[in-house]
Design brief:
This protein is α/β, with parallel strands linked by helices and about 260 residues long. It is built from 9 helices and 10 strands. The chain has 2 domains: about 190 residues, 3-Layer(aba) Sandwich (Rossmann fold), CATH 3.40.50; about 55 residues, no CATH class. The chain has a 6-stranded parallel sheet with strand order 7-2-1-8-9-10, with helices on both faces. The chain has a two-stranded antiparallel sheet with strand order 3-5.
Length: about 260
């Protein structure tokens, strides 16, 4: 078993650059610290995993997916619940029955209320690219280690949010990419420790940790959270707080990026 893996969640332009479509306040500095962490520990890291969030423009979490009776789209950060659809306040332009069922399942399962975001991480766009500092640090690690980093994608199925790296918010039994990614879990289990960083702390990172708690408890025991290399979506930190409390109670380690492996 190899010793140390670094799992970087959604360290992408749209989240990490102040000019990005869905910039997470503080993420720019997070990436500076994370790139330095890679450089400081370049000989101690045995693999780097990069998750890449990718979306179509007509994604269920983007404004163009929804409209009201006046054909107007919701503004970013609008919440849409199933009751809004049943009363006609909002309607899905695509797969209306499937979309209503999705909202109902979110509410039944106690998942995050459905939010509309700025269109972000569009497939093939600058916004979907890995933060340049992280990319350069990762490439430097690849040259030193002689290994290729491992990149994997999520979010391209337009009828469900895919915050967590292991599965969509509501998996579709007919769409493999939305279902539990057992191959990724098994890959991460090959390491004694899995250091976790990325954006946003309140959403994609928190959901990934919760999914590990739910579906891969043996992986949770290996996780080390780099606290100063992630930030919350402004005003929504409360959404992830219960997950981090649970993780601490389960023995997950929390460190600062200046800590050497």
């Amino acid at each position: 078993m190899q010793k140390n893996a670094l799992l970087i969640i959604d360290a992408q332009y749209d989240f990490c650059n102040p000019k990005g479509a869905l910039y997470v306040q503080g993420a720019d500095k997070d990436m500076e610290r994370l790139s330095q962490f890679i450089q400081n520990n370049i000989f101690q890291l045995h693999q780097i995993f990069l998750s890449i969030d990718n979306h179509t423009i007509n994604d269920i979490a983007h404004p163009s997916f929804w409209e009201d009776n006046h054909k107007k789209h919701p503004t970013p950060f609008t919440q849409i619940i199933s009751q809004d659809v049943r009363t006609g306040k909002w309607k899905a332009r695509f797969e209306p029955e499937k979309s209503l069922e999705y909202l109902e399942k979110l509410e039944k399962d106690g998942k995050f209320i459905h939010f509309i975001w700025n269109p972000h991480c569009l497939i093939g766009s600058l916004g979907a690219s890995i933060d340049e500092r992280i990319m350069q640090a990762t490439l430097a690690w690849s040259k030193v280690s002689g290994k290729d980093y491992i990149a994997f994608y999520k979010g391209m199925y337009p009828y469900s949010e895919h915050f967590g790296i292991f599965a969509a918010q509501i998996p579709d039994e007919t769409v493999v990419e939305t279902q539990l990614n057992k191959n990724l879990i098994n890959s991460l289990l090959q390491y004694e420790k899995v250091y976790v960083a990325g954006e946003a702390k309140s959403h994609c990172v928190a959901t990934s940790i919760q999914q590990a708690i739910d579906f891969a408890p043996e992986l949770v025991q290996k996780m080390v959270i780099i606290e100063d290399c992630m930030s919350d979506v402004a005003g929504l930190g409360y959404l992830g707080e219960p997950v981090y409390k649970k993780a601490k109670a389960l023995g997950v380690a929390f460190i600062n990026s200046k800590t050497f492996i």
